[in-house]
Structures are given as structure tokens and as C-alpha cells.
Amino acid sequence: MWVKPEEVLLANALWVTERANPYFVLQRRKGHGGGGITGLLVGTLDTVLDSKKQPYRILHCTPSSEISYTIAEAGSKKEIFQDWEWLEQNLMETLAAFEAEEDAMEFVKCKIESLVASVCSARQLDVEDEETSDFKAAMGRFCKLFNMPTEEKLVNYYSCSYWKGKVPRQGWLYLSVNHACFYSFLMGKEAKLIIRWTDVTKLERGTNRLFPESINISTRDTQFSFSMFVHIEETFRIMEQLANYAMKCLMSDETFEADVSFNNASTQIKKKRKMSYLKRDLDARARSEAYRSIFRLPANEKLDGDVECTLWTPYNKQHVWGRIYISSHYLCFASRVKSLVAIVIPMREISVVEKTGMSSGNVLPNSLLVTTKGKINYLFANMPDRKLVLEKISDFLSRQPTVDKMTFEAEKDMVDSNLTKPGQPTIELEPALFKRFMRRGSDDISAKEAVKENLWQIHFAEYGRGICMYRTHKTHELILRGVPDIYRGEIWMLYSGAINEMSTHPGYYQSIVEQSIGKYTIASDEIERDLHRSLPEHPAFQTDIGIDALRRVLTAYAWRNPNIGYCQAMNIVTSVLLLYASEEETFWLLVALCERLLPDYYNTKVVGALIDQGVFEELVQQYMPSLYQKLDQLGLITMVSLSWFLTLFLSVIPFDSAVNIMDCFFFDGAKVMFQVALAVIDAVSEELLNIKDDGSAMTILSRYLESIKNHDATAPPSMDEKDNKKAKVDVSELVQDGYRNFGMITNQQVDKLRLKHRLKVVQTIEDSTMKNVIRSVMADTVLKGKDLQEVYLVFKEEYLSSNFWRTSQQAVDVSAEKYDPSRPYYEQYKVDYDQFKTLFLALSPWSAGYHAETMALRMFRLLDGNLDNMVNFKEFAWCMGALCKADLPAKMRLLYRLHLPPSLLPSDVIESEELESPEADPSKKSTSGSVPIIANPGVSHTAHPQPPGSLDLPGGSVDSLLSPDSPSDAPSVMLERSVSETTSATSSDNNSKDGSTARKGSIGSGARYDGSRDSKLDLVHLPRMNQEQFIQLWKTLYDMFQEHSEEQSLYHSIATVGTLLLQIGEVGKQFYLKSEKSTNSNTEPEGFMVGSMDSEVDTKPSVDTEPAVEADLADDASKMAGKPESSNQTAVINESAIDKCDIKSEDSNDIKIQDEINSKNLDTDNKPVQEITEEIKSLGVKDVQDTQSAKSSQLSSQPMKSSDSKQSISSSSGIPKTDSDWSITFEQFLASILTEPPLVNFFENPVDIQDAIEKFRNRRLMVKQSSFVGTPPSI
Fold first, then answer.
1. Are 773 and 792 in contact (CB under 8 A)?
2. What is the pLDDT of residues 646-658, one digit of tens each?
3. Rounded to whole angstroms, what are the CA distances from 7 to 4, 85, 105, 230, 873?
């Protein structure tokens, strides 16, 4: 690749010359491709110095000059040789014609610069606002180094040092959406680190003696320290954002999605910055959040851009410098001097935007005049990008909905007048309740209220009224004195931003009230229980007027936002809102409070309030360290702050005093709560320092809070206030003390502290949830202690990871269920088939073969008891416990059930036979007779080619199987289950004396999982297994033992047990049919006798069928064991042939054995394996096995030709036919397995599941170091 010529002084330092001529030199970096100590030193030097040198380069030099110029670089020898050949073919002859070396050098430089310019211009034509090539290369390295999928998006990467013990390792820190990853390659050793953001418990900037600037990341088990950052502020800010999003995802099950809608015009004007799209997205989100917080805008408003300008303020006739902010629905201005002036102009209020020229008296360059529908003019000047701003505003105005302007009062009157509709009950929305109930009769109080009303009227006349008014420090002074009752609701609506949401959603509250009337929700009972506890001392809530209004508001909000629903503190806050605002205004104030001003405060876990507890503790420690030590010992801060913040002090201070605090809260935001709380503690600090127990501290605080009084209150006094003659504390003085002593606390500081404490609070909640989940499933699984905890953690990790990288939604939407408080803990996380398959293949000891995915699908069908295509943690824990820790009978029971409906469907057998048929599709025929070749044994199961006999998924997609709405050509699991249940019922009628008993004994429906009954399951309840199911079972067993240390002995045991069970099933069939015949002759009418006889004739044992089935099983065994097929087939077929010849002589003995096994109830749950084995031997199974072994040894010296064996197992259709009347019971299967010690040892040995979990977690770190031998990867 041609590069702009750069001067090189030391041409041979760390470089080796490969080719040279009088004008050019081709060099290779020392150590590249050669290995050794030189390569390690050079690679280490490049990594530490952050010098991303390509391994090959071409220098231009002249014979007499000592200065060289780099003109080409490449990462491979092929690329650099192409450039070298071009130089020799096109420039060498021309350069020889120059007489002066300086002219030749200038010619080469100009030629190379022209080549570079042409390449760059061609690239710029195809690239528009994309990541730089360097960043794309870094993203590729990130995915390769850490085995990340392409869905894991990289945000940015930074050079830093990771402190491993006391030794720093220089490398690169990659920050992606879900992980923080570190990679280092020094002195031939590489270091890797992967940290999930969902595992982070603490994130802070630290200091040490050597490097004062460092970042510490803490998880539950480890702390990681990084230092030597070039841009530590930017790095830490991105870390905070990503960790914060991860915590929100844990609480809400939402995922991070890149915002493609934010405008990028400002970045296009500036020089192109080397950052990712996600980095710009995060920066834009942070700016938009700050923008919404400052101006109290709706949650979906996104900042488009801002520019510096001046605003003409008519009340003092000055030009104020500040910045104008533009978004799709609002035009805002904030002065440079904090709180000097600010305005919010909704686009819906703007009528005209125009340029203004320079007048003769005043010079106003680049001015812009904005006129509202209320005939108010706003003049902006000194705007450098006036044309662009005008275009933006005009564009946004053109997108506004065409809705007629409605004033605040007119809109309210319209909603009230249209409440009644035909056929619906009359709903009368209440105005502010204070208007309906009496005030105090004191002339003094009335005079104070009148003075405040007059001051506000003057303020409105001077600064405007409504959403577009000038917001100045004068407004703040009036609010500190107290807002008159008549204006309180309007002020709350204005400064909380609720007026914007109500104006843009006319009639919304009315419609939602109509929808929720008479409807039962999860929150309905709690709301009804708390209605009469809400401000009971006020007359408004001693009647149905206030109670009905409160019920409607709370029910409507629970209907609107089921994620929050209802929290007990909401009734107290809403009741006070209803006193000063209308019913609809109260609803929108509640929306603003729960969703913007106090986020996450009122959900089921009150996460926001718990976070603010931690923030308050840190503020107390910062401003009152001596008092903090005392209160922390008593645990007082956490004891009192939750009720203070949840109710905005309404539960601890008389409401007529607390409304003054609410006035300041709606104007200044959350910082007011912390200022007032600190002022309260500071006021009684001397008394608190002398207390000895928490009871005394609570008494002191309660006495002080009860003494707070509002001297300007107009509400009727309560009985307690009349009896209390103690000295009062004026609430206005308390609020002013908070501003005066703790005014340095800002909302930005509070937000930063919230980010810090959110990690700790959310992780504490997650730990508590884990304990509850584990406690709820302990009785249903054999996993205990650390094993169960690790299984839960890996189950949750896979659930979260799959949600992060999911390209489609889950099969079933469970959003309506997750708000149910009665929902079991283990239902919190559910996985679909794709997620379950990943976990099963990684953790199950039965997933070693080619058919592991088929086993996973059958296990998923078994566990999915409620047919929702999801598996919860209780079901998954039971499955892992049964596979890894259960005893042998329990494992055999599970394996047996996996080959019965609903786990094994008739379509599975049909698809398997089609794949193995010689007459099948030619594309499949080539693989039907051989085991597929695995290209890379280290690849996961999902990367293996599909072997013969594996599950053929319709349409190539698992979703088509699991979706209940699958197309007709891809029948879903739901449809196949209904067919399988019918088939199972028919099979049970044919194979059991009492088919109903077999179905009732099944776990759930169709032998489905039911953890409550599985531990003491009666074995006789399991249905009989037919020959098709038996063949699939034996294929599973052959597949299970691959790469096992005892592989050969296990295959031999399986062949022996399989032959034994085939004989038992054949012998037992005659007895079973005779018993069925006698039963049918006694119960069926005469008209059915013919059919019964025909059935008996048709189902006589066929000598041709059994050898074919045995040969089929032996063929599978020979493939798995790697032996020639003919020898195994010969042995099995010869054994079967002699067995069939002697079947008459053995009939009486085998029928006796069958009868005794079926009649005797083996209690395998409560007996050790040795006792079970002895009991089975006593029933005569040992004799059959010994006879079989003897016959096998006699025939070992009589080989059969391979052609004969193939001919004997072939039928006219090419597929071995199975006997529909052949069947075995679970007792026979278990008894036969117990006769083979290798099988007993294999299934008896418990599996350490923690090793499998550790390997699964570290799979992204398993990259062979040998791939980087010689030269480290280019970072």
C-alpha cells in the first residue's frame, strides 16, 4: 500500500534488507517470521511504544544521500512484492534519465503522493460516515482474540497497563457493549482478561504511588486495576455509561440498542474523528440526557445540536450570552451564568421564524427572530451558523402535527365536557380538591396568601406566563417564599415538564380511565387497601370525592405502566398532588415523577430509592464526617432515608409544610431532597452525637420533623397541630438552610453518585434473587451448594448473552407474566431452545457424539412441560442434576424417557429412516453409509456437519420447530406433540394390558417432566418401549461413548445388552399377545373377534425381522468403534440365527423370566446398585446372558461372508422392518444394563459440573498461543 513519503533517518534500525537497487530498498522488520529472542524484543517494543509498524516496507533513497523516505508498507510479502515490481517496471528507466539525484527524489515523491491521493479519493467516494479502517481492523482483532460473535459491538479501545499482581502488563483495553476485555503480548507471553459489565460491582478511579491516575474494576471475586491511560477521562466516562446500561438491563431485561436516529451534521462539518459509531452514539445519549434533565423534557426527546448566541431579555433590556439547543420538538436557551435566564419554546408554539437585518441603531449580526402563537417575540443574535439553525428549525416545524392550539384552560374544559359517552358510566374528573374544601378563616393568613398571589401576578406580567416564560433567579426566589395554592398546580406542571406531555396527549387520561374501569390488575387489591390510608386527616379524603379521584389516578397509572404498577408510597404523593392540581394534571405529574424525576423509585424493588440511600450516605460522610461515623454504627441513615425520599417527606412532615419542599423539588430537581435531608440532620447534629442507641436517635429526629410548620398554610390544621404548643420550625427557613449550607450539591453530582451506587445496589439485589431462586429449587434437584449456585450463574449468563446478541425475539413473549408478584423466583429467567442447546452441549456429560443436538432437542421437549417453548431454571437444574449427580437407576429412567413421546416423535424416526435409506435423495445417499469427517475437532458441536440419522430440522431452522405458527411444510413441535400423544395412546393400547394405567403413570402429559413427582416415581408407570424407539435409544448409546477411555469395552457391552433385550422383547411378545388375547376375548363384543384374530396372525414373530434389527444395531456399533462392519454383523447374526432355532426350547424359561420381572416391583430408588444387580440375577436374567455369551464364543470361529450378511439384513425397500408388537419395559432395560460392569461404571460415576462450567466460561480465552509465535498480533 502506497503511503505519503516520510523521512527516515536510521534506515537499518530494527529492519533487515531483503532486496535493493540504486533507488529503492525493500526491508523486513526484524523478528517477523523468524521467531527467536529478536522477534520477542521487537514485538514487545512495538506493543509498549504503541508503534503499529507493518512488517514490510519500501524506502526510496539515492546513492549519495543518507536520508531515506518510506513510500510503501504492507502486512504480507505478496503485497509488498507487487509494489516492488511496479516500481521496477515503471520508474527505474525514468529515474536513470535524471542527471541530478535531487530531481529524481522529487520526481519519486510527487509520483507516490499522486498515487496516494488517487487511492484516497476513490475510497472517500464509497465511504460515508463509517468507522475508520483502523477501527474496523481493531474490531476484527477484538472478535478474533476473544472469540466474540459479530453481534458484540466494540465501542472503543485504549492503550493501558493491567496490574497483574505487582507487575504491570502493557496492552490494549477493549470496551464493548457487554464486556471489558484486555489483551497483552509481552516477551512471548500473552495475557487475556474478559469482564462482563453485568458482573461489575464497583467502578472507581484510584491512585497509587507510581501512577496517580488508574481505574479499578471490582467484581464479586476479584479486583482489576488499569493505569497509564492517555485519555483517562474519556475511558472512565464510557465505562460508567456501559456499566450503567448493564445494570438497567439486569433490572428491566432490556438490551442495549444503537440509536441510528441521532443527527450527525455537526460531526460531518468537523474533521473526521477516529471513533466508532457506538462511541458517538453514547456521547449523543449522554448529551441528550443532560439536555432533558436541565429543561425537564419528555424522555424520548433527543438533542440535535447547539450553538452559541445571545438572547435579548426585554425585562432588563440586555443581551445575555448563552447557548441555544435544538431538538425535534423544542427550542431551548440557557445562559452562560448559571440560573441567570432560561427559556423552553415548544415547536408546537412557534408560528414564525425569520432572519432580521441590522437596524440603524443597533448592530445585531446574524440575528434570528422567533414568534410564538401567543404573540411573544424572542430575538437571538450573534449566531455563527444562522443559516443552518434556520434550516433545522424550519425542518422540525414542517414535521409538527397539525393540531389546533389549545390553551391550558381550554384543553382542560374540552376534556371535561367530552367525558360522557353513550353506553358508558358518567366519569366526572375532579378539579383541584383544595377549591372544594374550606380554608382557614384567619384574616392574617388570607392577607399573606393575597400578598403572594400579587407577587406572582407581577412576576407573570414581567417575565411571561406558561411554558414559554423567562425562567430567572427571580422565579427561584419566589418559589423559596412559597407558591400560592391557586398557582401551585400550574407551577408544578410547568417546572416538572408534565405540561408538555399533557399538551401532546390530549384526551389520553380520559381514554385510559375508561379502559381501566372495572378491569382487574395485579395492583388493584393493593390500591383498594391503601385508599383510606392516604392523607386521612384531610377532609378531601374523608369523602368519596377524594377517594374516587385517587382510585382513578392510581388505577390509570398502573394500567399505563405495568412495570411499575403500584407502590405503597405512591398513594401518599398522589393524594397531595390531587389537592393542588386537577385529576388529569395529577396523572401527568405522577407520570413525570415516576418515569423522569425519580426513576426506578416506585418499581417492585424500589431500586432508585435504594440507590439514593447510598448517595445520601456518601454526602453525609463528605459534609459531616464525625456525625457519619456515629450514625453509621447505628445504621440510622438507611433506616430513615428510604421513607423520606419515597414520599418526598410527606410521611414525616405535615403535608402543608412538605408542599413547600415539593415546590422546590419540581423546580430544582432531586438535589433538593438531599439538601433538605442534610439540613434536618445538621439541625439536630449536636443531640445525635450524644445518643447511645438507635431508638434515641429516632426519637430526636421524629420530634424535630413533627415540629416543622408552615406559617402561610391555608389548609385546616389537624388535631395534633392544635394540641402541640411547642416551638415550631418554619419550613421555609429549613429549605433556605439547605440551599445555604449545601447549595454546592448539584444535579450533575447527584447523577454521578447514582451511577456509582447503582452497581452496588443492583448486584446486591441480584445476589438476593440468586439465594431465593436456589432456595426455591433445592427440593427438586440433586445439585446442592456451590454446584447449584454455579449452574444458576451460568444459566443467567447465557440468558443475558443470548438476549444481547439475539437477532430475533424469543418464541414466547413473557412480558405479561413478569409483573405477577406471585410468580415463582425460578421463573425469572427462561431460555428458549437455542439457549438451552448451547448450555446442554457445554455442560451435559451425554453430549459427546455427533447426535448431541438431537439429544438436546429431545431433552428440551421433555422439560417443556407447559408447552410454552421455554425452559425455566427449576427444570434446567433438575436436568443437570439428573445427568451429573443422580444414581444409575435415575439416569437410566431419564435416558429411557428421552426415547418415548413427547421427547421422541414419530417424525424423528421417519426422518432417520429416510436418511439411512439407499433409495433416498442422492445428495443424502453419499453420507448415509459413513461417519462424517470433522474438519476441526476443537470446534463446538454446532459446527459439525449433520451426520446420518441426525435430526433433520424443517427449513433448516430450529425456530420453525418451536414456533406454534409454523408453516404447513415445517410442522412445529406443538403440532407434532399432538400427533405423538395420539400415537402414544395407540401404542399403549397395543403394548399394555391396561393402556390407561401407562398414560396416567406418565410424568405430566405424555411422560413429560414434573419435578414434584419425579423423585418417587413408580417404575411401572413408565410405558413400554417399541422396537423403533429401542433402535433410536441404542443409536444414542453408541453415540454417547465417543472418545471415552473405555470406548471399546462400552461398545462391546452395548452390543451384548442390545442383543439380550431383543431376545427378551421377542420372547415376551408371545406371552404378552396371549395375555392380550385372553383379555380381549373376555371384554370385546363378538363382532370384534375377527379383527383380533387377524391381528394375532399378522403379529407372529418373524425370523427375518429380528436379525435385521440386530444387524442394524451391530452396524452402528462397528461404525462407532472403527471396526469392519462384516465381522460385527457376522457375530450378531449368527447368534440370532441360533437363538431363533432354539426359541421353542427357551420359550418357557424366557416367559417365566419375563413374568417374574413384570410382576415384581423393583424399588430401584431406595436400593444400591449391587442389591439391584443380585435381585435381577436371581430372576434368571443371568442365565439368559450366560447362554448368549456361550453361543457367541462357540460361533466366533465360524465367520460369515460380508456379502451374505449384507444380503440378510436387506429388505425390498432397503430399510430394515421393525416389529410393531415387539416391546420391552423399563425394568427389563434397567436389569439388562446392570449386568454389564462397564456400563454400570460409566453411568454410576458422578460428573464434576463445575469443571464443565469453568471450561464453558473460559471458551473465549482458548486461543492457541502458538498462533502468535514469532511476532505478536498487530494491535
1. yes
2. 999 999 998 889 9
3. 10, 22, 12, 26, 64
